[in-house]
Amino acid sequence: MISFRYRLLACTSFIGMFLVLLAGALVTKTGSGRGCGDDWPLCSGKFIPAYTLESMIEYSHRMVTGVVGIVVLVTFLYTWRRLKHHREALGYAGGTLLFTIIQALMGAAAVKWPQQPAVMALHFGISLLAVASSMLLVVWSHRMKKGTEKPPSDSVPRFIYSAAWGIWIYCYGVVYLGAYIRHMEADGGCMGWPLCNGQLIPYLSGASGIVFAHRVAAAVLFMFIAAFYVFVRRGTFKQPLSRLRTGAVYALVLVTGQIGSGGLLTVTMNNENVYLFTSLLHNVLATVLFAVLTDIAICSWKHRKVQSFSSS
């Protein structure tokens, strides 16, 4: 029996991780990464920093990360002491803690030693994995409460299992490319949407080439998810395809919203306040989409395991 206290703790961990990711995105978008100089964990050598916008944004991000880190640690310890016989829950809680530690260390390293955009983009990618792990723990605890998290009783075709993980990996690459564009400050490489600088295929070099590649990759991701939905919709298995169908619908809606928010990013680029909002919206949709695809991939893995065992 999963207690209400544990479910509340898992939800708090997830919400906290989500706030950490958004705070990190805010730091990047406002250029506040050096708001505390090269000091860590202090800010410009002080426990309470000077009142400047950049230092307050950066230091608030650190404070939120610290508090959430404690919540994540408590969640893991609770899971280890009370629910370690549930390997899935232990894996999700442990994954959240591991990725939280890694992202905190990467954040500290970025302050002490300036990093290349490719490394800074990986920081967002690690945060994405931490949020996904924490969300999976919430979903698991909810399904356990409802009694819908049962041992696999049916299996999915091999191509669905392969497609689910292929889409998951591909989505991670698309999101990473978007984060790389932000840290390269190449957002303005393509003016206009859906055309890029008024052209169907722009000059494929520099900022325009990177942004155009991201747009094409996002369009391909939409086609992959739409095809996956068609495949699971045609399936004749009652379980687990019903769960995969639901996840595929969510993923299709989210990737559509993600592409739309990318268009909004372009058209609001000249309005700083609106652009900040659309940028955060873009990050939110990307994070939730990745988490949903993670759940789909894990569901297909569980049922793929049954198939392999039964055939041996």
How are the secondary structure elements laid out?
Blueprint: H1 4-30, H2 53-82, H3 87-112, H4 117-146, H5 158-184, H6 206-234, H7 241-267, H8 272-310
Quickly count the domains.
2
By DSSP, the count of extended strands is 0
- The sequence of SSEs as H and E is HHHHHHHH
User: How would the global form be characterised?
Assistant: flat
**Strand content range:** under 5%
Low-confidence stretches: 306-312
Structural class of the helix and strand makeup? mainly alpha
Give the biggest sheet: none
Distance between the termini: 33 Å
Pfam families: COX15-CtaA (PF02628)
Subcellular location: Membrane
Pathway: Porphyrin-containing compound metabolism
GO biological process, one term: heme A biosynthetic process
Q: Which terms would index this structure?
A:
312 residues; mainly alpha; 0% strand; 2 domains; flat
What features would you describe in this structure?
The protein is an all-alpha fold. It has 2 domains: 148 residues, no CATH class; 162 residues. It is flat. The chain starts with a helix and ends with a helix. The relative contact order is 0.11.
